Amino acid sequence: MGDIKLSLGDTVIRGGGAVAMSTTPVVDSLSPSSCVVGGAAFTLTLNGSEFVSGATVLWNGAARPTTYVSATQVSAAIPATDLAKTGAVAITVSNPAPGGTSKPATFTVIPDITSALATLSGVSQKFTAVKQITDVQAGLVQALNDSKTYLSYQEATISDLHGRLSAEQTRSSGLTSANADLQSKVTELQATVAQLQSRLAAAKIQTASPLDVAQSFKAVVDQIQQAALKAGGVQTTLTNMNVQLKAVVSVQTSAGGAPEALLVFPDPTALPDPGTLSTVTLSFGAIPNLKAPANPVS
User: Fold this and answer.
1) Which residues, listed in sequence order, are joined to residue 240 by a DSSP beta bridge?
2) Verdict on whether the full-model pTM lies above 0.70
3) Parallel, antiparallel, or unpaired: how do β-strands 34-36 and 105-110 relate?
4) Using only C-alpha atoms, what is the Rg of the chain?
C-alpha cells in the first residue's frame, strides 16, 4: 500500500508515520526596534508566539545565530556589519520543517545625526567660493537626506508614543472611574454596618448559640410528647418540624479563645431593618409517634 497523506489545516498525517505539526511563528515586537548606523554588534530579542526549538531569525532573509528562549521569545546575534548602512530591515522567524515563516517585522537602521550635523557644519564653513560649493555638493545632499530620514523616524516614534500615552490615559481614566464606584459602594456598606451596629447597641438583645436554641425547641417538643402520652386520645404522629428565626449571626471569641458563632435576637420593640437579619432554620426530623392508650376511654 502506498503512503497515505491527509492534511487538516496545519496538521499533516501520513499513513504508517507519526503526526507532524506545522506551526507558523508570529512576531509581535522587537527589542530594540532600531539602531544608529555604524553601531556595534548587539542581541536582538523577538517577542511573539508559536516559536519552537530550532527556530531561526532571518535578517532580510539571511539567517543569524539564534537562541530559543521559549514559545514566545527568541533572540539573535546581530553583527556590526549588518549596521553598515541605513534603511528598513525585514525581520522574520522560520520554524524548522514542516513549520512556516512569520510575517516580517521592521527593524530600522537610522542615520547618525551627529555625523550629518558635522557634515553640514563643515559645508557651511567652505561656502567661500562657487567652486567650493561644487566640491561639497555630494556631501551636502547626503547630509540633508540623512537629516530628513532621521527626523522622519523620530516623528514616527513620537507619534507612536503619543498613541500609547493616549491609550494609557484612557485606561487610567477607566480605572479611576471604577475605583470611584467601588469607593462609593464601600461607603454605602460602611454606613449600613454603622446603622446596624447603632441599632443593636441601643436595643435590648439576647444572645444564644445555635445549639442552645435547637435544644430549647427540643425541650418544648419533649414536653408536648409527654403531655400527649399522659392525656391519651387518638393516635398522633409528628414526623418533622421546621422552625425559622430571624437573628443576627455574630462571630465572637469564647472564653477558651476559640471563635464561636452566636445568634443575636434584638428586642421586638426595637427591631432593625429585617433585610439586615439572617434567617436561621431549625429542622427536627424522625420525631417518635405518639400512640393512643390500649384502652381508650369511651
Assistant:
1) 285
2) no
3) parallel
4) 42
C-beta separation of 213 from 245 below 8 A: yes
Task: Return the C-alpha cell found at 2.
Answer: 502506498
Task: Look at residues 71, 143, 77 and name the one whose alpha carbon lies nearest to residue 111.
Answer: 143
Partner residues linked to 282 by β-bridges: 243
For residue 239, what is the DSSP state?
-
The CA distance from 88 to 31, in Å, is 15
Q: pLDDT 10s digit of each residue in the chain, 298 long?
A: 444 444 434 444 444 444 556 789 999 999 999 988 888 999 999 999 999 999 999 999 999 999 999 999 999 999 999 999 988 999 999 999 888 999 999 999 988 777 666 666 665 555 555 455 566 667 666 777 777 777 777 777 777 877 787 788 888 888 888 888 888 899 988 888 887 777 666 666 677 777 777 777 777 777 777 776 676 655 555 556 777 777 777 777 777 777 877 777 766 665 566 666 777 776 766 555 444 455 554 4
